[in-house]
Amino acid sequence: MSQTDPRDRLIVALDVPGVAEAEALIDRLGDAATFYKIGYRLAYAGGLALAERLVARGDRVFLDLKLHDIGNTIEEGVRAVSGLGATFLTVHAYPQTMRAAVRGRGNGLRILAVTVLTSYDDADAAEAGYALPVADLVAQRAAQAAEIGIDGLVCSAAEAEGVRRIVGPDRLIVTPGIRPAGAEAGDQKRVMTPGDAKRAGIDHIVVGRPITGAADPRAVARAIVAEMA
């Protein structure tokens, strides 16, 4: 597990409609957060420029774009993203995609491979055409990612201990689907509390709605950081 400022272990998901809402949330969080995730919705609504501004002021940014395309497109796309100064970028954990992303990374950008979406269970995987249950599919993709040289994995907290055994101590594990005790699971089917995540050897947790929907986001973020410290 990486040793870092406890606040850096919490990645706040800026799952809001636009930049104005994101900036308002960031202001409300104050110094309780230092690491932010920008996904599809915000990225397509001015979020990439916001990412550059956050990096310029010393914050860290996780671009959760889950890239998956032909190799050349991935390689060149990752090379372009490297210029934004982000810390993390996600790609789907298909071998060809991962190899291309590794070729394109630079400027300190770390590539995270998404094993299986945390909204998926075995029934969802079967419906999508996968013969393996989720746990086995995660293990297969984690082993491939380690062999290819991916910097880290995105998986559910429930799979984190198994993934750590596969990839060893030197690769990052980043986990969404984290919910403080008593919070609603929402559309996440494989969830865990921040304390459980720490005990499972997870490096960074991604938290969205429990913070973004809170009356006092700063207090919730601080409580989560305290639980992970």
Class by alpha and beta content = alpha/beta
In percent, how much strand structure appears in the residues?
15-25%
Distance separating the two termini: 13 Å
- CATH class designation: Alpha Beta
Predict the CATH topology.
Answer: TIM Barrel
Overall geometric form: globular
Residues in helices, as a percent range: 40-55%
Care to count the β-strands?
Answer: 8
Function: Catalyzes the decarboxylation of orotidine 5'-monophosphate (OMP) to uridine 5'-monophosphate (UMP).
Pfam family, one: OMPdecase
Organism: Methylobacterium aerolatum
GO molecular function: orotidine-5'-phosphate decarboxylase activity
Which labels suit this protein?
single chain, 229 residues, alpha/beta, TIM Barrel, 10 helices
Question: Would you mind describing this structure in some detail?
Answer:
- With about 230 residues, this protein is an alpha/beta fold.
- The protein has one domain (about 5-225): Aldolase class I (TIM Barrel, Alpha-Beta Barrel).
- It is about 45% helix and about 15% strand.
- The chain contains ten helices and eight strands.
- Strand 3, helix 3 and strand 4 (about 90) form a beta-alpha-beta unit.
- The protein starts with 9 loop residues before the first strand and ends with a helix.
